[in-house]
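Incident log, entry 3
Record: 4-coumarate--CoA ligase (564 residues)
Problem: checksum mismatch between cached and fresh output.
Input:
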Amino acid sequence: MTNTNPTSTDPNNGFCRTTKTFHSLRPPAPLPPPSHHLSITDYTLSLLQSNPTFSPNTDFLIDSTTNNRLSYSDFINQTHSLSSSLSSIFPSHVKKQVALILSPSSLHIPVIYFSLLSLNITVSPVNPISTESELTHLVKLSNPVIAFATSSVASKLHSSSFPLGIIIIDSPQFLSMLHNSKPSNNIIINRKVNQSDTAAILYSSGTTGRIKGVELTHRNFIAITANSQYNRFVKDNEHEPHPVSLFPLPLFHVFGFFMLIRATSLGETLILMERFDFNNMLKAVERYKVTYMPVSPPLVVAMAKSELVPKYDLSSLLLIGCGGAPLGKEVAKRFAVRFPHVEIVQCTQIGNATAVPPILMPQIGVVPTPIGIRGYGMTETGGGVTGMNSPAECEHYGSAGRLSSNVEAKIVDPETGEALSPMQQGELWLRGPMIMKGYVGDKEATAATMDTEGWLKTGDLCYFDSDGFLFIVDRLKELIKYKAYQVAPAELERYLQSIPDVVDAAVIPYPDEEAGQIPMAYVVSPYKKIRKVAFINSIPKTPAGKILRRELVKHALAGASSKL
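Fresh output:
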């Protein structure tokens, strides 16, 4: 981190005039010494077991489809048992071994993650609906030695690609590995894990280019977890219900991956959904008395407008964590009318929102009115790096919050490379202990994204205001070049989504002889137009809720759109 001169740093926004760097106004979150051998598994379980309110008999995981449950006690025992079973498969002297996981969300996945991480095996989870050609590409990127897959999708993998074979997660063999340890051997196998070792390879969505494998270290996840522990809302009501989180987002994505770690460290209960369905989500909230739910922006719009919502008792819900794009004020207000007791956290402290998805959420806090808490994070940051942590901060609608602990930022002119001051727009650069190691097997992409001083170039057009709040304008590569102007699709999308009869919308550039490009909107609703409109059944998105604009551009250029 850069040494700052207090006399040259503005206490209102953390901007250092000497270095042109923005610094966090949060108290620093304490981190273990970098030289200390520590896996994210050991760190997370130590936080869990030091929590005075933790009870081993508490439900940790519940499958919303089958209602099967796993208590914390069973989870820890199964993790220990699986670690013991796998230790004989993975030679301790072989470093940098990667395990591919191809499976829908289930009670087994967290056990697999924590077990492999404790053994210093890099976890590489992928989307179970990936095609064989996509999987071939991902396997080449991460070079895994073993795969864990369910029997329904294992046929998409070639066993010859994995030297240690494929373990079928729903087989008797695997189930025996979860329960075969004797009590005397029921301990995590001691393998030295350096915090700088790669913990996970998570894949970027590829919405602005080819898919890349993001290398995140144990230190990265420890830093984010520390932030979630030491920078969160303080509960004002000691009689609040036990936190129960619904997971409608996939565990193979950075959002779900880190939220799993965070929830474990805090002893929360997680409701897993193998496949997302809006109606089933509402049923699960009612059945399991869900208090918190991380979602993508379209779900907030649906919850504010859908006629299905009033059919269910959602009174247990206290907090919604939203990531994917800044939420419009009108949508937030409409949500607040229907859910006056629910906070909207988009996404949070330590921050999450996205330029890719969100991640960390604060501990549920008691707030007198619905608040839109926003934040920013991406796969390359392992989670969130900005957020809100007080009701006063939450009043800054449209903002992604302030920098989280241990994070530095710059706003850089993309043309000149000059670092800019507050209220000036430029590319957001980030630095801190949660920033990725790089893109696996892609030195060129790593060098283009990270400089020699450890700054991550996010590719997002942003600015900080005079109070240190971050505002995200749009992706630099997605700005529409209309005549001499640059138009941000996200701003038009937020406007369209604020219209009561519009369920969802996406805006793309469309070729125009006179203007160069014009904004074209895809609208889910028979409503009005901007310059060019196409009606569509649903907006194509990644599992994390990011709009796949390139798919819409292909659709538009193919002449399939309607011109109004």
